[in-house]
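Sat 14:20. Reprocessing the chain from the morning session after the first attempt stalled halfway. Input below, unchanged.
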Amino acid sequence: MKFIKALLRDAETQIDDRLHEELGLDNIAEYTVCQKVFPAYRFVDVYRAIDVKMSAQERLRSFDSENHEDLSDLIHGEEPHWASRQINRSARTAWATGSDEEVFLPTDSYWIFDAQKEFVPRTTVIRLRYKKHDEATVIEVASASEEFSAVLVKEISEQSIVDSIYRQQMLALSYESGTKDEYGDVEKPERLRINFRTAPPVSRDEFVVDDEVFGVLKRNVIDLHLERDRLKTLGVPVRRGVLLHGPPGTGKTYACRYVCGSLQQTTRILVAGTALNKVSQIFDLARVYQPSVVILEDVDLVFSARDISLYSSALGDLLDQMDGLRPFEDVSVILTTNSLERMEAAIKDRPGRISQCIYFGAPGKRLRAKYIEQYAKAYDYSKADHDELVRMSEGTTPAFIKEWVHRTVQFACERTPENSTAIELETADFKAAHDEMRRYTDNSSGRIIGFLGNG
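Finished this time. Tokens:
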């Protein structure tokens, strides 16, 4: 009943009247507002940090009301003709807090409490709102002590980082372009969206790669993070750039999956496509939630050599950000490319930016046998000639072998009765699938469309 009465009271009250009642009309002139603006994706973290901070307050008053003026204007300014100051319930917006979890939070909230410290007289107001048009999270603190307001904003900001929903998660960044109306005014702001990703860890047995390549990758990325505290004491910089290069389908993406699965206590940030252009925001995210690993995929599409690059500003940003990483910042960068020759020399040829290049090429005989075993282990292929399969796969990539096995299963199904649950893969099935995949090739080179090698 009290709750209903409070709602009815708020519905009939102006937000400025409510604030003046809480703060005391005689004291209004003493109040100043400290404000800090965060990216939109920080909203949940800051909201939760305020809740944690306010949990110890005995006489806490909280409510939500969507108003478009800043807190300082609501407290000190005259009511404008263009905006209402009536208290009205704020909209609830869904925010992702995990790969399959979300929470609905009001987009404009107030917390009012009585400060207990002697040097902070009277009442303090905290306001948090999400400004959709600016894609921003804004926290405002009104207090009779400007020093206290600034300290409170700082404490909430720090708490939001420590307990962030993004820390130690695998995050995929995507970019949504903005739109403008016919007069050039922004209708929808551009946005860097953070998506949670989950992927089952890849075991060493599943990660089929040359032992030497594996050792270099493990030492320069995984071990670097797992041993970072010890390495710091020995004066070894823990920031490092690694470039994975080689033809398509040779295992670069799978290597990144292995890294992500091996560093569960690290924030893993995956970036591809147009999101690669938002270099500053990517590295800001990495610094805030370090220790972190930033994986930039197919970087030749954006960070190619200067004489052919259409995104020279993004290239400059990347160089600046990689140079700006301090030696003991826990941020590693992995870049992947299918075309090393297209890469800007200032990235790949300077040790301070890229400390290690790792080549992923077409697998040899031993590795091809392991790939066939890996992708076909779910099926019965005991009757197939394993040596013949390895010979047939010469010159192909892991991606080709994976697709080859799947196509072979289709051929086996075609000759197996529908009511049969046992599917046996025979050499003839593998050969039929292999011939079909090679049927349409690049006439000039004999290259299989979509795959490396001559089959």
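The first helix runs from residue 2 to 11.
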